[in-house]
Specification:
The protein is of the alpha/beta class. Helices cover about 50% and strands about 15% of the residues. Strands 1, 2, 3, 4, 5, 6, 7, 8 and 9 form a nine-stranded mixed β-sheet that branches. Helix 3 runs parallel beside helix 4 and helix 7 runs parallel beside helix 11.
């Protein structure tokens, strides 16, 4: 495993001090009129961070790689995702950005506008219209964004759409942005630089902040943890030397704690070599999540690294209604447990024990949260926590059923 060298520690300290003031400015800007100040505040702050930190980043990352190369516990040399040979100098990588969407043309237009304003202009933009019920998405793309490639994927399922994007994309790196998210102007350039500068990184996740916190549902989602994972870079598997929420944690716990699929990039050839995204996960209401965790975990198991890069910033519009937010939170926990049962069933030896213990903890966690709620230390109401506990218990048997549902969807669309 790669460890953190002293140069990288200095870099993290520098970034923490720098971004504390930027984050405060962004939150203040987010209280402005009609959300415009929110967008401008985050984007201007990210631009400032990008410019100020650029010199430090390169120097400290080089120091960290040099220190990591001396770690005797790491026997695997960095390898190219394409050939498996030792990494050599190569041409600059190219980027494709994919938005997988279904029946949300207004949110999609907003996301596409953020992509057309990127500082990285030489990138491909794809819209994967997943089992649309009408032509509104096609009309929105063809009218306002003629340079965007529009592709219909008839089989329902987010991971099915993601796999279609992997096959359609022409870039070396495919970055996924949710249709209800907005990318910072330097988002694409930052994502691509991560892969250019780190040949063994297979997955990059970025920071996700709320587009707004004006509604009860949006505030509840953030109170429960939100999507953001902080202002410090996290590199896996090396970060397991650090503490997660104050305690030592196994790699699989870190793998579900370094970002989300709404701001997620992967090396295209590597993802295809691993079989793409698991279409039995991220199936909508039936199993609403797990695909991003699964891909990141398989990339790590294949001997590559994952990097959480907070300067790759996107804003996500959470659900406004409390009931919808609670349903989403419970659904994410159900999907997480279902995915963990898959990992346990496919693991052997030490990884099996680690995954089994983590699965047991995730099933037990809602009951721990009920105790915390009793003393006023948990943001979710008691009925929601009971629903979460029951959903986690039921999820222990969901994944095999999800596999059958995914196969039926493919047959119906054939």
């Amino acid at each position: 495993m790669h460890g953190y060298g002293p140069g990288f520690v200095r870099y993290l300290t520098y970034r923490r001090v720098t971004t504390r003031h930027i984050r405060r400015a962004c939150v203040t800007a987010g209280r402005g009129d009609a959300g415009r100040s929110t967008r401008a505040g985050f984007m201007n702050a990210s631009r400032s961070l990008k410019e100020v930190a650029a010199a430090k980043t390169g120097e400290c990352m080089r120091h960290n790689r040099a220190a990591s190369s001396k770690n005797t516990n790491c026997e695997r040399e960095p390898r190219s995702p394409r050939s498996g040979r030792e990494v050599t100098a190569a041409a600059p990588l190219t980027l494709s950005v994919a938005i997988c969407t279904r029946n949300r043309p207004d949110e999609l237009v907003r996301a596409l506008r953020s992509l057309t304003r990127q500082s990285l202009t030489d990138m491909e933009i794809l819209v994967i219209d997943n089992a649309p019920s009408g032509g509104a998405t096609h009309d929105a793309v063809s009218t306002d964004f003629p340079a965007v490639r529009y592709v219909v994927e008839p089989v329902a399922g987010l991971n099915v759409a993601r796999n279609r994007a992997l096959h359609e994309a022409r870039g070396d790196v495919v970055a996924f942005l949710d249709d209800d998210a907005v990318a910072d102007p330097h988002w694409g350039a930052t994502v691509l630089s991560v892969f250019d500068e780190n040949p063994n990184v297979g997955v990059c996740t970025g920071r996700v902040e709320p587009f707004s916190t004006r509604s009860p549902g949006e505030r509840a989602f953030e109170a429960n943890g939100g999507f953001s994972r902080g202002l410090q870079s996290i590199r896996l598997p090396g970060a397991t030397n650090l503490r997660l929420h104050g305690v030592r944690a196994p790699l699989i716990a870190w793998a579900v704690s370094v970002g989300s699929g709404c701001n997620f990039a992967v090396r295209r050839d590597l993802a295809l070599a691993l079989g793409g995204f698991d279409d039995a996960l991220d199936m909508g209401a039936f199993l609403p999540g797990g695909g991003d965790h699964d891909m990141l975990w398989r990339v790590l198991c294949a001997g590559h690294e994952a990097l959480y890069e907070p300067t790759a910033l996107a804003l996500h519009e959470h659900r406004r209604e409390l009931s919808a937010t609670y349903e989403q939170i419970v659904g994410h926990q159900r999907a997480l447990v279902a995915w963990l049962t898959k990992v346990v069933s496919q693991s052997r030896g030490g990884p099996f024990l680690s995954a089994t213990c983590f699965l047991a903890w995730r099933v037990m966690k809602p009951s721990i949260r009920l105790i915390r709620r009793a003393v006023g230390r948990d943001p979710l109401p008691v009925p929601v926590l009971f629903s979460m506990w029951w959903a986690c218990c039921r999820a222990l048997r969901v994944y095999p059923l999800a596999r059958r549902v995914a196969e039926e969807r493919r047959r119906e669309a054939a």
